[in-house]
Input
Amino acid sequence: MVLLSKTYKIYLFNVLFFDGEIKVAQIIEKRKKNIESYVDVKNAHILEIGALDSPTYDDKKYHIKFLDYTSKEELAKKGDSNPRYRLESLVNVDYVCPTPEYSKYFQENFDLVIANHVIEHIPDMIRWLDELYNLLSPGGYLFLSVPDKRYTFDIVRRNTTVVDLLRNHEESIKKPNFYNILEHFYYHKSVSASDVWSNDFKEKLGVKRYELEEAIDVAKKHSLENYADVHCHVFTTDSFCELFEELGEINKIKFGVMNHFLEHIPNIQDVNIIVKKACSIIDDFLLIRQPYYDADPYLFSNGFKFYWSNWRGHPNHMTLLEFHNMLMPLVTEGLIKSFSLYGMSPVTSSEDSAIHNIDSMIDQHGWNKKEHTPKRNIEFSIPVYKEVLAIVDLSGNSTDKVISKLKPFVKLYSSDNETTK
Output
């Protein structure tokens, strides 16, 4: 997931991976949790693009409008043959914009713009981001969910490069062209995220959906339509970050956020590379939030665990010491000025729904008595937190405003050796 702030016209990396078995409702709840860390949605004027049958927020409860490339009626016709669509849940489309040149179709500003699994469909991504930037009110946010190709049918496609983005922008491509469509269909593989997680996908890589001649015919047909529902771009987590690093050479990034991102990176070496790259292109500060893993040994010794501690999607369990060992060399190198680590959302007893019995199944969510085995209640004898927050200062300017807005619970460590027990 990715959040962009109009205040600085910057790109913030918030990336999550979802197993194919996770229900849509659970994915939406995760998205909302990330959004609501930064946006007061109850009082926000919101636009969601391409919501179809899975809007992030209900228009009966929130001040939200919906945008799509065609009307609800046309979407229903197109979705009639797709069993994944819940036609009865399609949103009412407030703005019909056949091309991503939104400023041609309406003039309005929003505190929050949401686009889940949309950016990969947009040929001219640079123009699209500029259009969305112009839709945002001062201080507004853009929230994106972006698929990682390694867990989708795009698994064998080459990553989009910054040259692709610049060429498409220079050529002002307004809808997927023949080559976008051909690449989408010819390299399509019937692979899902659950196949990848279970390592049951390698045979599927050798199966073609279309032979080349067939794919050319399909691409020619769809290129004549007003809109072709294909992926013009594909990314991995790293390639997406690298694209914005390269674009950052054109527009310098003011600050960045990695919100529940690093725990999904396969190993600490890759984490070090990503964080160092981010620090090299950001001007002011970097925020990093992730689960707090330092309490795991204590919880395990008492027969408990956080429900996310053995998620298959969390291969990287960074401790405070590993944060220190990653960031302190960057202070020594002069790449960053200082950093502080905070504990957020304290947990005082095993009654908290984030706490499970140690023998609870993997890939669970919050404990509840209907789905999970009973657990004993104990008061914890050491500080336990749900999250750790790292505030990395790159400019030497005060981060007091950031700290006051996020309201971290307690400082655990800082690079000037100030510690709080």
Observations:
- The chain has three domains: 2-150, 152-223, 293-414.
- The longest helix spans residues 268-281.
- Residues 152-223 form one domain.
